[in-house]
Amino acid sequence: MTDNEGYLLLSLPLIPLGAAVLLMFVPSGERTLIRIVTGAASVAMFVISVYVFFAFDYRGEQFQGVLAWPWFENVGFLGENGVQLKVGVDGIAAPMVLLTGIVILTGTWVSWKQEHRSKDFFILLFVLVAGVYGTFVALDLFFWFLLYETAVLPMYLLIAVWGSGRREYGAMKLMMMLVAASILIFTAIFGIFTEAGLGTFDLPALFDATYDPTFQKIMFPLIVLGCGTLGGIFPLHPWSPDGHAAAPTAVSMLHAGVLMKLGAFGIIRLGFQMMPEGGEFWAPALLTLGIVGALYGAIGALRQTDFKLMTGFSSVSHMGYVFLGLGTLNLIGMSGAVLQMFAHGVMTALFFLLIGALYDQSHDREITHYSGLAKQMPIWAVFFVIAGLASFGLPGLSGFIAEVHIFIGAFRAYPIVGGLAVLTAAITATYLLRMFARTFFGEADPRWSGIGEITWAERAGATVLSISIFALGLWPAPWIDRIAMGLEMGIPEVLS
Question: What is the DSSP string of 289-350?
Answer without folding.
Answer: HHHHHHHHHHHHHHT--BHHHHHHHHHHHHHHHHHHHHHT-SHHHHHHHHHHHHHHHHHHHH
